[in-house]
Design goal:
This protein is of the alpha+beta class. The protein has eleven helices and seven strands. Helix 1 packs antiparallel against helix 2, helix 2 packs antiparallel against helix 3 and helix 4 runs antiparallel to helix 5. The protein is globular.
Length: about 300
């Protein structure tokens, strides 16, 4: 399992009337296979997913599995929930069931990066037998992992990965003809503080239980004198091993965000001018990413 982990992403809409949605979950205005998705069903699936995240933070794999099975039964094509269910199945020792879920994701979402990279991991480990066409196809499109950044202090290494994420964000923007974002030290501090808050208080959400830090705007105003015209936040959580902090895994986390419409919208929003990225880890190799985007040049 070295280096294999799951990316969990959540997003907050821009500070306006934009909705907060989870990756792959259709809104009440869209359809799934031509059938209107009932808002109650979507809401129940999202709540089951949130309960699964809380259970994972607490180390309760059985509850997480039950909640994710409920979420995927309600919304069978919700890639994020099914990928996370596959990860949980790996943790409880059921790799064949995990592989089935990853392959199911690729059946309706062939470009899903997380499912493809996970299946490639199965091929590399040679732990499963049977038809390997899907695995081989995924493996062919993945480059060999690169080395970690040179071992310096932990703080310096995390800062290097933060810089890598900024580079990846600006690469996406310039490829779309958008201006690269400038790094703002206050946004960076805000992002780091939120990542630390999630790690140390054991939650994964944009809403913080810490007094005075409830929303991304609350946290922004702790570092800036006035409200910005535009602000957004992406968060990502990876469960892993001691070797999870590596260039390939950071790149995978970024790709996971780019495959979510809401997170991609934040990264490529033409109205933001600055970014701050925070990355923290624990001794097990789990890590938390927070990206804060804002318009500081109205």
């Amino acid at each position: 399992m070295t280096g294999r982990a799951v990316v969990v992403v959540a997003l907050v809409g821009l500070v306006s009337s934009l909705p907060v949605t989870a990756q792959g979950v259709p809104s009440a205005q869209t359809t799934e296979q031509g059938v209107r998705t009932e808002p109650a069903k979507q809401s129940e699936a999202c709540e089951a997913y949130r309960q699964a995240l809380s259970a994972l933070v607490g180390g309760n794999l059985a509850t997480a599995r039950k909640c994710l099975e409920r979420a995927t039964s309600l919304l069978p094509r919700w890639s994020e929930a099914r990928n996370l269910l596959a990860f949980v199945l790996l943790q409880v020792g059921d790799p064949k069931a995990a592989r089935t879920h990853y392959e199911e994701v690729l059946r309706y979402d062939p470009a899903n990066f997380l499912a493809r990279s996970s299946l490639a991991g199965f091929a590399a480990d040679a732990t499963l037998t049977g038809p390997a066409s899907t695995v081989q196809a995924a493996t062919q499109e993945l480059r060999k992992p690169t080395d970690q950044f040179p071992r310096t202090s932990r703080e310096e290494q995390l800062a290097q990965y933060e810089q890598l994420l900024v580079q990846l964000i600006n690469r996406e923007r310039t490829a779309q003809g958008l201006k690269a974002l400038s790094v703002d030290t206050d946004l960076t501090q805000q992002a780091r503080e939120q990542a630390v808050d999630m790690r140390d208080l054991g939650y994964f959400d944009h809403v913080s239980p810490s007094p005075g830090r409830k929303t991304v705007l609350d946290r922004f105003l702790q570092h800036h004198p006035q409200q910005p015209p535009l602000i957004a936040e992406n968060i990502s959580r990876r469960w892993g091993t001691a070797s999870s902090l590596s260039v390939p895994n950071i790149e995978n986390s970024h790709q996971g965000l780019m495959q979510s419409a809401g997170h991609r919208h934040n990264i490529l929003h033409p109205g933001v001018t600055h970014v701050g990225v925070g990355l923290v880890a624990n001794s097990r190799g789990d890590y938390w990413i927070c990206e804060v985007f804002a318009c500081l040049n109205p």
